[in-house]
Amino acid sequence: MNAGNVRPVTGCRVCGASDWQDVVSFGEVPLANAFLEPAASYDDEPSYPLGVISCRSCRLMSVTHVVDPEVMYRTYSYVTSDSETITRHMEFVAATCRERAGLAAGDLVVELGSNTGQQLAAFARHGCRVIGVDPARNLAAVANEQGIRTLPEYFTETTAGAVHRSHGPARLILGRHVFAHIDDLAGVLAGVRALLHPEGVFAVEVPYAVDLLEKYAFDTIYHEHLSYFLVRTLDTLFTRHGLSLFDVERLPVHGGSLLVLVGRPEARRPVTDAVGELMAAEERAELGTDAAYREFARGVRAVREELPALVRSLLAEGKRIAGYGASAKGTTILNICGLGPDEVAYCTDTTSLKQDKVLPGTHIPVRSPDHARNDPPDVYLMLAWNYADEILRKEADFLRAGGRFILPFPKPAVVSADTVR
Ligand code: TYD
Ligand code: ZN
């Protein structure tokens, strides 16, 4: 069912231009995190157009349509994972930001999209005052119960001004994997300017468009992810809004991300070599030209053909297949590749909020890891491939017993005990 609450993108949210290159289009797809209770019929399940366009002026990649955030975020089932990978990463982010922002005990750290507060807890442990801002009322309540003070709001100039009045300026403002979800970047950056200490740092972590382009990892394209950024695009954005990007680091987390550090221009922080080096690499890869995005579209088409073909050939050999991780990426790839419960028996996931629900669109059931251990498939389709190393280690017994995994990107491939490092 095509739902309301959605509008097509017209002007570029970074540079205002409206000369778009069409990159890929996936038709109508339900929201990636809209898990459903099992039901006899799903006729009224909403779906929304999904595709990507690239701005020929600043090379922002954007989804074609923006769904009303009230629909996506007020009650949100994505809970920050407590996987080893993420726990380690959060410690790294806390250490890097403490060092780069020169944080001392008592300094204020504000995080937008703070989810259940795990990242802020890493700053609180070092004596910082912390405040989270997250519109998901269910998650803000969890964070508050755990002692991480969280406002159940969007981060805007108004919210930021209120925090400034009650707590003073923030030495660090953090937005991890939330920046790509924001349509009104001008509003958020006005909030950052209102709240940031003159010497403060705004740290942003976003999926890097280069990783998306190189891996053809089109499962990160879903309605929540409005923007896919290059360093050059972020630089344009911050400059337009009176801020200055001074450092960037490429990180493996979430399939390939950037940690970007931004300050006030008056603070005159030296710009690190990494900024120029990444922008030069983007230039060398000709990411300012249409050809790069046509090549991405070709790779996406190939995975969309090869993955269902591989799954069907394994089924034809009598193998039983289940999904590993009911990630938003997973629900997206299954929908886009047209794989449903006839092909994938269930998806296993550690998130209790998702268990015993069904995936959006495909209605494949989500099962707990206990269920999966008692009823293992022959082959797992790796849907949380951003944690592949951790998962392959954890599932060594399954592999030793002859189990196999399908890794979808950049080209679908099967791994077994013999081929895992
Ligand atoms: P994640 O990659 O965090 O994000 P997204 O939803 O943005 O694609 O999702 C990973 C999912 O995989 C999450 O629902 C938890 C689940 N998971 C497991 O079930 N087992 C595991 O060992 C790990 C690491 C994740
Ligand atoms: Zn643009």
Automatic annotation (TrEMBL):
Signal peptide: none annotated. Residues 252-410 form the C-methyltransferase domain. It is an enzyme of class 2 (transferase). One of its GO terms (biological process) is methylation. One of its GO terms (molecular function) is methyltransferase activity. It holds the Pfam family Methyltransf_14. InterPro entries: Methyltransf_Zn-bd_dom_put, Methyltransf_Zn-bd_dom_put_sf, MeTrfase_14, SAM-dependent_MTases_sf. Residues 12-73 form the Methyltransferase putative zinc binding domain. SUPFAM superfamilies: S-adenosyl-L-methionine-dependent methyltransferases. Keywords: Methyltransferase, Transferase. Its EC number is 2.1.1.-. It comes from the Bacteria. This is Class I SAM-dependent methyltransferase.
